Amino acid sequence: MSDCPILVWMLALNREYTKEEYDACYKVIGECVQHIKIPYDPPNPDSFRQIMTHLLPLLMMRHRRIQRAKWRDCVTPNGKHWIEQAPDDMPPEKFLHSMIGYHLEYEASLCGMAMTQGIQRKVVNIGLGVKRVAVEPRGTSITAYATSMAHKLTPNEQQLIAPELGDEVVLRRLCILLALKGAYIQAIGQPSGFDWARLEFDIPRETARGDGHPLQGWEFRIFRANLGVARRDVLVEEHYQCVCAFFRGTPDSKFIWHESAKDLESWVQFINIDQMVKVIPKLTA
User: Name one GO molecular function term (predicted).
Assistant: First the structure.
């Protein structure tokens, strides 16, 4: 799989942030990420989530020791982003394969970026789905929550989350289905009004269909993220179901389940607020 290796960065918002931290991060967005406009709103946690998520590409490029002046953010007509590096001293063939496609996603305390490198038309077909394993709104029964999400599922998928399977199985499977669909919809660059029930994922058989036709050539990497988040004086455990979807153009679609932390070491990097805030001064260089 040397063609288009996938890397994922996951940033845990593992504690409350200060106004100073918000301001420092907001300033970097203004200086270095001109294509995104985030209204200035320090008390709003969602504003902070957006800022931190949009810092991830800067962090990744910094990690690769590529100065901010040496790359630009590009976007396809349907909103898929890729990074083009300055072709200085790069042979044309290498330049063609140096494009970095990426997708950003966040939910609750987890911000993520999935990226891959190769030729432009391939690398943009990447998406990340992140779903917190919890009911919304808090206090809802799992059965009621599953019912409220039923419009996003096909009849076959609804059978996979039948109430008699028990709350834990229902919630986990529902979150996997929603993360799979979210990742795929983002990877193909569909707008937010896309009808999720047009997609069907048969988890036991590891097959995927769109409008009744097999989805061929896709790679779905399914993994979990477990965070410890400080809420005032209490440490709360949060669990997320994550999926990275990427179109490889192979004859079949492939589901890869990453069950252990060791499985993730080679391609998923976890960081937290402290680590991000520490590198802020370097991101503008």
Answer: holo-[acyl-carrier-protein] synthase activity
Say if residue 137 is preceded by a cis peptide, omega within 30 of 0.
yes
Domain extent for 214: 6-283
Query: In the structure encoding, which two tokens stand for residue 200, read together?
Result: 């069907």
pLDDT, position 84: 97
Q: Does residue 143 lie within any of the structural domains?
A: yes
Token pair, residue 137, equals 């709104």
Place of tokens 């097999």: 214
* pTM for the predicted model, two decimal places: 0.96
H-state helical runs in 33-154 = 45-63, 92-96, 120-123, 142-148
- For residue 214, the cross-strand partners are 209
Q: For residue 144, what are its two tokens?
A: 């009621």
Number of folded domains that form the chain: 1
Note whether residue 179 is domain-resident.
Answer: yes
With respect to residue 266, please indicate whether it lies within any of the assigned structural domains: yes
Task: Evaluate whether residue 203 is within a structural domain.
Answer: yes
Burial class (CB in 10 A: 0-12, 13-18, 19+), 272: middle
Residue 161, SS3? coil
CATH number at residue 12: 3.90.470.20
Rounded mean pLDDT for each run of 10 residues along the chain, 285 residues in total: 86 97 97 94 98 97 94 96 94 95 98 97 98 96 97 97 96 98 97 95 95 97 96 93 97 93 92 96 88
